[in-house]
Amino acid sequence: MRLFATLLVVVLGVVVAASCGNNKKKQEEVEAHLEAARRSFLDHDRAIGELDKAIELDDACIEAYEQRAEIYEADYRQTGRAQEASKAIGDYDTLMKLEPKSPKAAERLRKRAWLKAELGEHDGAIADLNASRKRDSGDWRTYEQLAKASIATDNLENAIKAYSLAVKCDPSNASLYKARARVYFDLGDKRKAIPDLVKVTELQPDLRAYAELAWIYRELGDPHKALDYYDKAKKLDPDFESNVTPW
Question: What is the pTM of this model?
């Protein structure tokens, strides 16, 4: 019995050692493909081929999915091909399944939301952005994307709320005030657009903001303020025409 037990321990030890050896070899192969992909970052097709091989060896390889998603997204931005965006979304889906509580989850959700919005999947984008803000409520980019997705679904009130949250996260971002002013204008509330446009000009001289303020005050029957903003616009651009309409 002791002899049998000894033999069993020896056999198990050999099996475990072989398994560890195989795992180590596989991991080395995975790392080799990842390194080859890093070196081939300018050759997207080759890099993707290396990443595919890494995933074949280890279908839970986070870095491979991350790199491949970024390449697909870059290819989409360059070519506009919907299939590239869909592939990137697929990799972000996998990453969220593998690491739902990762510190990178909020960013991955935001990136996936942008891709979905690009493909016209605005409801899916909004769902991802709401999930992203639960993980990280301090990123103005999430709220800006949420505002744009809300505009795309004709929910202007929600767009205002989203831009307001974005402004709280980044109160010195002039583009956010300008975008919210545009939504107020589209809602037919010119007066509410005024403080945002004034804030834009306080942050930086802005020809378009001066022009929009001049137009709004002219429409509201205040020619003196309209002329004041017209003069400010003229100082920035001597060729500025007073008949320019906002947006």
Answer: 0.85
